[in-house]
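lol ok so funny story. i was supposed to be doing the assay writeup but got distracted and ended up predicting the structure for this chain instead. priorities right. anyway since i did it might as well share w the group, maybe its usefull for someone
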Amino acid sequence: MLIALKMDPKDTVAVVTQDVKAGQAVQIGQESVVANQDINAGHKIAVVDGKSGDMVYKYGKVIGQLSADVKVGDWVHTHNVLDITDELSQEYMKNYRARGK
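and the output, tada:
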C-alpha cells in the first residue's frame, strides 16, 4: 500500500513516502487519493483542490502559494508553487515585534 503523510487538519498537501505512479491510489489517513502524475518519494500530493493564489499548508503552516490551479491528486512542487519565504519572514517578524510592545 502506498502511503502519504498529512500531519495537520489544515494541510492542503501530504508527503508521499515512496515513489508513486500516475493512476496509483495513495492512502492518507482514512482517505484514498489517486495520483494524477508520477510523484517522487518525499514530494507532495494535493489533498484538496486549489486555485492559483491559494496558500499551501504543510505541517499546519503556510509553505508557499499556488502559482497554478491544482486538483486532488496533483503533484505539488516548484512547478506550481511560488516560494514566498521572504514575505512570510517579513510577516512573522512584524508579528514578533508587535508582541514585544
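The first strand starts at residue 4 and ends at 5. Helices lie at 85-99.
back to the writeup now i swear
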